[in-house]
Fold this protein.
Amino acid sequence: MITRLGLPGQVLIGGGALAELPGLIGGLGIRRPLLVSDPVMRDMGLVDRVGALMGDSGAPCVVFADTVPEPTSDVVERGAEMMREEEFDGLVALGGGSPIDTAKAMAILAANGGTMRDYKVPNEIPQIGLPIIAIPTTAGTGSEVTRFTVITDTETDEKMLVAGLACCPTAAIVDFELTLTMPLRLTADTGIDSLTHAIEAYVSKRANPYTDGLARNAMGLIAKNIRTACADPANRAAREAMMLGATTAGMAFSNASVALVHGMSRPIGAFFHVPHGLSNAMLLPEITAFSAPAALDRYADCARTMGVAEEGEGSQAAVARLLDALRALNDDLKVPSPKAYGIAKDRYDELLLTMASQAIASGSPANNPRVPSSEEIIELYRRVYG
Ligand SMILES: [Fe+2]
């Protein structure tokens, strides 16, 4: 079997790595980059800080700071329009997964034309666009190292998965110091997102020996540090471990795919505007319970790696501990059910069939160790509602 691994050409990891940006821009031969970010980063002063570093490389600082959480196709089109109007030769994406995903999508549209829907999986992306330097400020989506972007279609509210090497940043700067001020809810949600990436990459039908090591490494780091990072935001060791875990999990799922949790999570996010990590968290325990019988040993490995089961414990017992641990994590991090989040039951029920068909169309459920039917997905949506 041949495994095609796709990763950024350079990843600079460590506290203070942001200072390497001017050298990285120069080294890549970028002379006129566009900085893609969002209003939160601008208000925090990070856009100015990164803009000054871009200036140190001799490049002007031109900013597109209009990206939105759970990025939409119309914002991507506005950004691509700006790229067509001015001659840029690279993008610097600064922020959580949303600005990074937006920058990827802008580069794809600017290079290939058309609309975002044209590149939804399983469609291919013909041309790789401008080089992207991704600078994540959450730990996180892993978008800085993945060959995916997720864009919500403004017209239909569908969260579209777009995949291919054209989505993979050229370089990433992974500096945990940028996460030290992340608020509690964001730390929890993005942390569970990255734990989900690691678990799904490990149990995915497309897992391979290269991604297994990355996924195990990430699971251990995240499971053992997520509570500390939430309770003690300035804890550098925990923040560093979470950042490393998130990026490593990104490398794993980018090359092994995510599975049923992500497939079912995207429609919840799109229709009810639930942040991505939170909708994953709502689903993770129940989907794990549904899937585990089909890959008991793999899920048992997850439990042992996360430190919630003993090495010598049998797989059945280890998986039971994993389920307990995932439920306890949701309780501790105050993850609400869809009902408790305020999602109306009648609207949820009305959309079940559409959500299930969008989940299946994304391709992610087909990577799950237990591939569900549409009826089973609907039943799972009902079970997690609360
Ligand atoms: Fe995710």
Observations:
- The beta strands are 10-13, 33-36, 62-64, 90-95, 132-136, 148-152, 159-163, 171-174.
